[in-house]
Structures are given as structure tokens and as C-alpha cells.
Amino acid sequence: MKSVINTIFETKLAELKDKITTLSTSVRLTIVTVGDDPASKVYVRNKIRLFDELGLECQHITLAEATTVQADLDLLAENADHPILFQLPLPNGLVAPDLPATVDVDGFGSETLGQLVLGQNLVLPCTVQATIDIISAHCGEHNFAGLKVAVVGRSNIVGKPLAIELINRQSTVASFNSRSDLAAVDWNKFDVIVVATGAHGILDNSQFIEGQLIIDVGINRVDGKLVGDIRHHDGILSAAAITPVPGGVGRLTCLHVLGNAVKLMEHSQN
Ligand code: NDP
After folding, report:
1. Does 159 lie in the same domain as 234?
2. Residue 267 has what pLDDT?
3. Of the residues 165, 195, 236, 270, which has the fewest C-beta atoms closer than 10 A?
């Protein structure tokens, strides 16, 4: 799957570079972080690097954990006139402001998600777009209708919007959560299984059959190593195609921060 991910990344990046040259305004992004969560630092660095490589402006506002209050975040959101994101998780009970769809580059806000339900969204949450890209590349972009997809996890930023996007595309979708009896599920009846739980080992690579596509969204640190939600048994090769962690969904998710910024800038000039 690594080569599939690489091809998607390179193709999308080339498309974005072309698109950027057609815009009359330059693409900008503001990233707001509070405190110094180590994982967030890595994610933010990757986003900034991508913008830097393309010569685009990415402003990084770092706020101190001890002194930042909700009103500071809300003010930044109110004044945003271009794409902005609040890097999660936020400490001390702070919540990311509910951004208007026109600047909501992460696609987590209630306006964007409401638009998604109606099939009128400007952007998809970046991880959802990454997952859709992988399904498109593997199953064919016109083959979503009738595709049988299991989505494990129902968070507001991954599982739920993904399930809605798949429904919009006429896939047959089954949604699972922590109260589902996963042991009783016949996984082999699905064409695609997306696992986004943060629970490493929830499923394992021996459970899947040839022809299936397994998208491992999870990012977990086990014994100092980054691993997904799928456990890979030593010496057992799965017959199914399984996306790698790291270097799978996460790599494309980062690219779609840029992709969404481009879409929002394009929308703002129309
Ligand atoms: P959340 O913690 O917000 O949601 C986890 C979801 O998984 C919940 O719906 C929960 O169910 C469900 N779940 C947890 N344990 C089980 C279980 N044992 N069986 C079935 N369902 C379970 O996580 P996120 O959606 O934000 O992230 C999920 C994972 O994806 C994390 O590892 C995160 O780091 C990773 N991630 C990766 C990204 C990438 O770019 N690759 C981007 C975003 C996230 P319930 O609702 O019942 O509690």
C-alpha cells in the first residue's frame, strides 16, 4: 500500500500546485497551538513544512498553556479572514472555536458538518478526504455506490463525517463504536473496513481476506513505536491491502490541510 499512498500524495500535490497558480490571491494558513503537546508539535511542523516547500504563508501562533483563556481563542476565530485551525488536543478544558465554514480548514465546525449532511460542504475533514482518496485509488473513483464499508469509530472528526460522506456517495455503511460487539461481526462481508479508534489491536491482520481494503486511521504509541489500530502479527502476511502506520492516512491528512486551504481560498474569490 505504501506505493499507492505515494502515488496519491504525488498526484494530489501536483494538482494542488497547478491550482495554486490559477488563484488570484495567495494561499495562507494560520495554525494556533496552546502549550507544547509533543505529538501536536510534530503534526504542526509537518503542515508548516509543506507550506514552506511551496512558498506559501503559514503563520503559527503559539499560546502559553498557563495564561490562555477561551476568550483568546474565540477572538482569533472571530478575526480570521483566511483559513485557520486550532491544533487539537487543547489543554485545560479549552475548546476549538466553532469556525464559519469559509475559514474552517480542518472541517470540524458545525457549519461544515451541517453542509456535509446536506451534501453541500466546501471541504471534508482532512482525514476523511484522505480516506476517500485511498478508497478511490483502490476501488475506483466511480465505484463508491454499492460499496460495502465498515467504519469503526464514530468521532465527530473522523468516523461520523466519513460515514456521512460515504452515505452521500451511496455506499452501504455500517458504523461501529465502543459498545458494538466486534467479535460477532463477519468482517469478510465488507469491501472496505476503516478503523479509527485509537485502540491498538482492536482487529488484527489475520482477520481479513483477499480483495478487501483495510484503512488504518489509528495512531498509537506502543513501546515507543507508532502503530495503528490493526495489530500485525509477526510472520503473518494479510491477504488484504492494509494501509501502513506511519506513512498512510496521516501523510495524506497533512496534505489535505493544504488542499482544504486551497479550496477555501478558491471559494473566497468566487
Ligand atoms: P476519538 O477518541 O475521538 O474516537 C474514538 C472512537 O473509537 C469512538 O467513537 C469510540 O467509540 C471508538 N472506539 C474506541 N474504542 C473502541 C473499541 N474497543 N471498539 C469499537 N470502537 C471503539 O478518536 P478520533 O476519531 O479522534 O481518532 C481515532 C484514532 O485515529 C486515534 O488513534 C487518532 O490518533 C487517530 N487519528 C489519526 C489521524 C490521521 O491523520 N491518521 C487523524 C485523526 C485521528 P465511542 O464513541 O463509543 O466512545
Report:
1. yes
2. 94
3. 270
Atom number of ligand 1 nearest to Cα 159: 25
How far lies 16's CA from each of 22, 94, 101, 119, 253, in Å? 10, 33, 20, 23, 14
Q: Three cell numbers at 217?
A: 486511521
- Residue 157 CA to ligand 1 center (angstroms) comes to 9
Residue 176, ligand 1, Cβ within 6 A: yes
Task: Tell how far the Cα of 122 is from the centroid of ligand 1, in angstroms.
Answer: 24
Split into its structural domains, the chain has a count of 2
The answer to whether position 110 is within a domain reads no
* Alpha-carbon gap, residue 38 to 123, rounded angstroms: 27
Full domain range(s) for residue 170: 126-250
Residues 62-96 have pLDDT tens digits of 999 999 999 999 999 999 999 999 999 999 999 99
| pLDDT averages per 10-residue partition of the chain, 270 residues | 94 96 93 94 94 95 96 97 96 96 97 98 98 96 97 98 98 98 97 97 94 96 94 86 95 96 93
Kindly report the protein residue whose alpha carbon is nearest to atom 41 of ligand 1: 250
Q: What's the rounded Cα separation, in Å, for the pair 30 and 159? A: 26
All three cell numbers of 83: 483559513
C-beta of residue 231 within 8 angstroms of C-beta of residue 201 = yes
Mutate to test the pocket of ligand 1, among 197, 219, 249, 260 (most ligand atoms within 8 A of CB): 197
Report the Cα 226 to chain-centroid distance in Å.
Answer: 17
The DSSP output letter for 1 is -
**Residue 185: HSE in the Cβ half-sphere, 13 Å Cα cutoff:** 21
Does some domain include residue 208? yes
pLDDT in tens, 131-172: 999 999 999 999 999 999 999 999 999 999 999 999 999 999
